[in-house]
Amino acid sequence: xxxxxxxxxxxxxxxxxxxxxxxxxxxxxxxxxxxxxxxxxxxxxxxxxxxxxxxxxxxxxxxxxxxxxxxxxxxxxxxxxxxxxxxxxxxxxxxxxxxxxxxxxxxxxxxxxxxxxxxxxxxxxxxxxxxxxxxxxxxxxxxxxxxxxxxxxxxxxxxxxxxxxxxxxxxxxxxxxxxxxxxxxxxxxxxxxxxxxxxxxxxxxxxxxxxxxx
Length: 214
Known about the structure:
globular; CATH 2.40.50; 2 domains; 3 helices; 42% strand; single chain; 14 strands; 18% helix
């Protein structure tokens, strides 16, 4: 009888573990080339977030640890730098190799123009772009809340995660809301603001008053 009870409990524990694993779903398709620094050349811009514009497209910028990039001194300047690629689909970011930013003789690259797509009212989740694009996996949801708050506090670019009608998840660069976003990180939130496009990137510009919990 004892053996039967032990085997039954063991089988039940295994079944529960398998169900919990299946319920979590697959990890996001993202990657981080940790300390694998490649060479990049382009022009640095700081609006709407620190960005390197290159001939092959643009990259958001960050620096090692839970910090955003500090590149104001290089704004509008052609540069070369070492960067570790962080990528989730078409969303790309570079973690700048410390001390690698240097002036380049290349011609300046103009940033893509901003196009207003109108005002929207969307429900989604605020996350930090650095972790969501690939440094952490999962880089969203309640399990990631504490890390997201620390990264956002340190200047990591905030993104607003929202699904379209087909269920595809999109990361909109979130601007304008300041530190108010820390109150809502990793929670269901409604954001009202102006949807913009700059090149291939979608941007949601919202005032602090445009955020509220769902």
